[in-house]
Amino acid sequence: xxxQPTLQTQRLLLRPFILSDAPQVQKLAGTWEIADMxxxxxxxYEDGMAEKWIKTHSxxxxxxxxxxxxxxxxxxxxxxxxxxxxxxxxxxRAEIGYWIGKPYWGKGYCTEAxxxxxxxxxxxxxxxxxxxxHLSRNPASGRVMQKIGMIYExxxxxxxxxxxxxxxxxxxxxxxxxxxxxxxx
Length: 185
Description:
single chain; 8 strands
């Protein structure tokens, strides 16, 4: 499969990013509130960074190492965030990561998108395990993980250095068998 699919939920379209998304990515991901709660987003989010990031998506998908979706509110055709999988084929697992722009917080978009990405990971990609983590001081991200059926697996104390401060990471995971059982009940 050389071409990344587009997925759809009740309210969202999960599609590949295109270069014309870059200004909205910079605007949404470039806020301090988003960068502060994620491990990989820079602050400030400078001109050209979004384009450079978007250009990595296609090669990563072709290599089978990642799939990154633009989260678009279907009804108003507005980009509100990103969700993706960092794939490890050797071990049939992936790490799910996401961010939603601050104006779209609290509307369930992240949970809705994450449920569909789990389905895609298990049914379409045939993966066995999905895992994720969040900074301990970002419980909202953990609630998304819980809502999609992920199981708390522990805390890695002072596991990462973020902006010159050691941070704890809360770890979650879900197996294909668990997801299948939950989705059929």
